[in-house]
Amino acid sequence: MKELIVISGKGGTGKTSLMAAFSSLAENKVLCDADVDAADLHLIMNPKVIRRTEFRSGNTAVINKDLCTECGLCREMCRWNAISAAYEVNSIDCEGCGVCVHFCPEAAIEFPENTCGEWFVSNTRFGSLVHARLGIAEENSGKLVTLVRQQARELAEAKKLDLILTDGPPGVGCPVIASIGGASAVLIVTEPTVSGKHDMQRVAQLADHFKVPAMICVNKYDLNLELTLDIENYAEEKGLLYLGRIPFDPVFIKAMIQAQTVFEYDGQSSASEAIRAIWQRLSDKLGLR
Amino acid sequence: MIISVASGKGGTGKTTVSTNLALSIGSQVQLLDCDVEQPNAHLFLNPVFDRTETVTTPVPEIDMDKCTFCRKCAEICEFKAIVVVGETALTFEELCHSCGGCMAVCPENAITEKGRELGILQKGHYNGIEFIHGKLRVGEAMSPPLIRKVLSFADPGKLTIVDAPPGTSCPVIETMKPADFVLLVTEPTPFGLYDLKLAVGAAKILNIPCGLVINRSDMGDEKVKEYAAMENLAILMEIPFDRRIAEAYSRGDMIVDVMPEWRTKFLELYQRIKGLVT
Q1: In what order do the strands lie in the sheet with A163-167?
Q2: Do A12 and B43 make contact, defined as CB atoms within 8 angstroms?
């Protein structure tokens, strides 16, 4: 079984639109949205949720005022300054380390588990989708990413499907690290801008660091041909498999507004043609049927 | 005053707005780039850096001569960063959240702290703007302590503009927390709107006033404006799609340099924000 993660480094380069387009082309796959912090794939997939599960992770301190003697030890020991002078814990600031809970001489601090979000298994017109919603301002996004990837894998195994197509998060931090570890390959979708190139280089280094093979394509390539060439040279130098260019095409936004993939909206558009060629190279490389 | 520029969705134009706003104001202004996973503001402002420092977070170091393998440190650690097996105590530094619990609980005083490198912080200036950013080491997962370090340079005597990372989880919350105003940059697309709602939710949880900039305002639909009207969110500026702007951005050029008439618009944006904060 192959697992491809679509990432970008920089946000807004077209990861999710491209991932949705691939859903139109790929067969025998499970879809997975690992951008749990700002999950958007469902806006195109129109999923029918068949299983919904709470995501619980971490704990938050809560002071029982009846038992608290206001001795001050918890406020002194808390490194996050999460306990106010009125002995109330600010749940946003609380790191969930439990130091106050452990040291409170009155055992006045409770430590309930957090419900940080939900994850879903859904049916879509392109097959099954495993996705999630991390609560706003919640932590542990990396753990939720690991969980949805694991669920997608189990589903693919159970259904004897040979591909997991995963929409990854932007950046190079905790959720991205959780998204790419152990994957068959990552596809980096970049754009010919100074920031697109900078962020692509950092995420390519990350893939290299975790020994995940990286492929690359340039979206909106005609915005800056010089930088597109620059990125192509970088890919060659670093031994990243270069899959091709996609032109700047308003069809991406038009399709998104209709909740369609670019192929559903206009299979003959210049972007569609380019994506078809990229998918061909990609599936050859991954050895898909 | 601290203005955090955030978005929910990536690539909507946070860095464009924060850098052009800072450059338009031009004096008594700081720009703190807190998107430490992918800092980009320096690519547009090209600041001269005069200081670079390594940023670390404290992690435990166990003195094996003193350790009696009582396991109290492993038991208090909520993050499984210490494991005691037989006559060995192992630390997993990258899991440590630096709470200091193990050090406080150790009955033998066998635990001290050392710094673990998270990345670097650089400080510089450009055309009257004081510039600071953090750069997370590639492979490092823990960004909030580095973000807090960058934010610690906020000067109450100046206007501080903070470029936030995308999303709505811990790194974004860290960046919004100290703000007096959250400026949300969005685009009029379904993805832009969905992620905008999350970002507005985050500002509400933190009880910080917010307003919108709609970028590429003519490339999409009307739903962001309908939402703004319904939620009573002020639309403080609209930037229409203009290939000149997109191409200038691609090269790392500033809008206000390429099209100087935009300077006035960014100054108006600042006046509107001030009107909403005081």
Answers
A1: A48-59, A113-124, A127-134, A29-33, A163-167, A2-7, A185-190, A214-218, A241-245
A2: no
